[in-house]
Specification:
mainly alpha
Length: 139
C-alpha cells in the first residue's frame, strides 16, 4: 500500500470515529434532557399504566370466580353404514416364467507352435532353422 493510500484510509477512519463520537454525545444529551425536563409526565404515565394493570387484574379475578359456561351438547348424527369390502379373488397358481439358457460360443485361442526339430544328416536343414517362425518372411 502506498503512502497516499494509507493516509487516505487513516483520514476516512478518523472521520468515521469523529462522526460516531458526535452522534453518541448528542444522543446522551437528548436522553438526559428528556428525563430531567418531564418527571411529572413520566410519573403520570406510570400511574396510568399501574391503574390499567390493577383494573385488568380485578377483571381476571372476577372471570376466574365465575363458573365456566356449560359446554354445548354434542350433536347426534345417524350412523353411517360402511359396505363390507369385497375380498379380492384368489389368484391362480403362480406361473413360473419360462427361462431359456443360452450357452456362450466357445472362445478359441490359436498359438503358433514352433516346427518340430528333427535330426537329419544334412547340415543345411539344421542351419536354415529360423526359430520356428512360419510367417514366410526372412529376418
Amino acid at each position: 500500500m502506498t503512502r497516499l493510500h494509507s493516509t487516505l484510509v487513516a483520514f476516512v477512519l478518523g472521520a468515521a470515529a469523529a462522526t460516531g463520537l458526535f452522534a453518541m454525545s448528542r444522543t446522551i444529551r437528548l436522553g438526559q434532557g428528556a428525563a430531567a425536563a418531564q418527571p411529572a409526565l413520566i410519573a403520570r404515565e406510570l400511574a396510568s399504566r399501574q391503574a390499567k394493570l390493577a383494573h385488568w387484574s380485578h377483571s381476571l379475578e372476577q372471570a376466574r370466580a365465575k363458573h365456566p359456561p356449560a359446554l354445548p351438547k354434542i350433536p347426534k348424527f345417524a350412523p353411517v353404514h360402511i359396505p363390507a369390502a369385497v375380498p379380492p379373488a384368489a389368484p391362480a397358481a403362480p406361473v413360473a416364467p419360462q427361462v431359456t439358457y443360452v450357452r456362450p460360443s466357445a472362445v478359441v485361442k490359436y498359438r503358433h507352435a514352433s516346427a518340430p526339430h528333427t535330426s537329419t544328416g544334412s547340415s543345411k536343414s539344421a542351419s536354415s532353422d529360423d526359430g520356428g517362425s512360419d510367417d514366410g518372411g526372412g529376418d
